[in-house]
Amino acid sequence: MQNGLTEFIRHVPKVELHVHLEGATQPETLLRLARRHSIRLPADTVEGIRQWYTFTDFPHFLEIYFKVCDCMRTPDDLEWVTREFLQGQAAQHIRHSEVTYTPFTHYRQTGLPFDEQLDAINRARTWGEAELGVTMGLIIDIDRGGPPEGGPLTLEWALQGRDHGVIALGLGGYEPDFPPDIFADVFDQAHAENLPCVLHAGETGGPESIWSALRVGRSRRIGHGVRCLEDPALVAELRERQIPLEVNPTSNICLGVFDSFEQHALPRLLEAGLYVTLNSDDPPMFNTTLTDEYLKAAATFDLDVGTIEQLVINAVRAALLPPTVRANLEREFYADFGRLRREYLVGNHS
Description:
single chain, globular
């Protein structure tokens, strides 16, 4: 890949639609939180935590995730983690993020009330917009494998927070054995309240998981969705409706959906005319960033600058923003595309 395109990708404005706040906690931050609360971790150095973060299987990933949540004991912890997350996004020129957050896990593990959680995150969100020029919306997530009361309570919280940064209700976790049908009543109520739903589907579960997300959850977007290619009828449905897919290539590879980046379905998804966005999921746990995902995709699949720009604009248009805000953001991005093309790609035939 030519150096000009590399620099273009590094500097291009971006939107990220699929990233977990807890899963974006850097090793350095986790160590400081653990020391603050005298919590024992499997390692006591940054390098040791990085090695522990290295993905082995889904149960190991969940072990890390729940330990990270356990280290977030106070509102100050949550505000700090969110500020560091937004600084990392700003450094990558990610102007807007739609961040998945699972409040019931924190409530269950530490007893922290939801209103205190949300207030802390919103202090950081307000700071990020004022100081860094980045915005963030929260997708309040149900852990599909958690206790039954988690679903209705999470919906209650999402509705409570919808005028305070909450933009959608989500469903995450390990797909097999936990279909969206378990929470059908919750999603019906969310739909009745005009609260958007954005479900994870089609990664650890196959096409039926995606069908259920569409049918039961009325999902606006599909978190992952890469296994849709196993069902031609589903591909046709997604293409016809242009349902956005939140594709996370490195995450997919770590979870064993594909054996390598070269074998990832991204080019097939694009060739099928599907609505694709790129995302990082749980970046430090998968040793990636959103910028890295763009760079690896461009290098591996020989994507040109037009395709990169389209992937960026796809994310802008799929964002759960007010129409006027979304339109203004798109205009700003196109202006930046032109400026960055002139700066990095003049004479470059990428």
